[in-house]
Amino acid sequence: MSLALIWAEARGGVIGYDGTMPWHLPEDLAHFRELTTGSAVVMGRRTWDSLPERFRPLPGRRNLVLSRDRTWSSAGAEPLHDLGAVLHDFQAPGAALWVIGGGELYRLAMLSPLATRLEVTELDLGVKGDTFAPPVDASWDRVASTPWLESSTGIRYRFVTYAR
Ligand code: VY7
Questions:
Q1: What residue's CA is closest to ligand 1, atom 12?
Q2: Does the beta carbon of 6 sit less than 6 angstroms from any atom of ligand 1?
Q3: 33 alpha carbon to ligand 1 midpoint, in Å?
Q4: Cβ atoms within 10 Å of 12's Cβ, excluding its own
Q5: What pTM, to 2 d.p., does this model score?
């Protein structure tokens, strides 16, 4: 079992503002859907709340949701109360578990040696944020990147992969 983290960040590492991703980048949503469909995803409860209702649960994926509140539940979500329990449930060899957000969970997941892959969408966009991507420290190698691409919306972006 390995953990892969996937996020999209604007300049300065902004990943969210006021409960949403403060941009519209359809190419990133397609990338996210392609990489995660068919796998299990794990997200924090605030990220679950942020998903547009028609995409909740994310179709074609097992949706694990971390909450400290043991009374929390939501249709289509499998509630879990600590990441250790999640890792325990995922003994399937070779299977990847995608960590899909948000800021608090990325920081926690990065601490695990099981976290060996990052898929980061970089946006060449300045926006106000209140939630930030975790630091990508020297333990990570940048193993692939697309060139800068131009979205149908005009935003410049690229897909970057890290491994350790
Ligand atoms: C944001 C959406 C926002 C607004 C409308 C639709 C990367 C993303 C995440 C998590 C994007 C979002 C959507 C449409 C496609 C749906 C998911 C919801 C699907 C992440 N690079 N991008 N994310 N979506 N962790 N990393 O929550 O999504 O996948 O079926």
A1: 51
A2: yes
A3: 7
A4: 11
A5: 0.97
Cα–Cα dist 68/38, whole Å: 27
Residue 60 makes CB contacts below 8 A (sequence gap 6+) with 37, 38
Return the CATH superfamily for domain 2-163.
Dihydrofolate Reductase, subunit A (3.40.430.10)
The beta strands (E) that lie in the chain are given as 2-9, 14-16, 40-44, 62-66, 78-80, 96-99, 115-123, 131-132, 141-145, 149-150, 156-163
Q: Which whole number is the average pLDDT over 65-75?
A: 97
Minimal-distance CA residue to ligand 1 atom 25: 100
Query: Once rounded to an integer, what is the mean pLDDT over residues 141-153?
Result: 98
Report whether pLDDT(77) > 80.
yes
Tens-digit pLDDT profile for residues 84-138 = 877 777 766 677 899 999 999 999 999 999 999 999 999 999 999 999 999 999 9
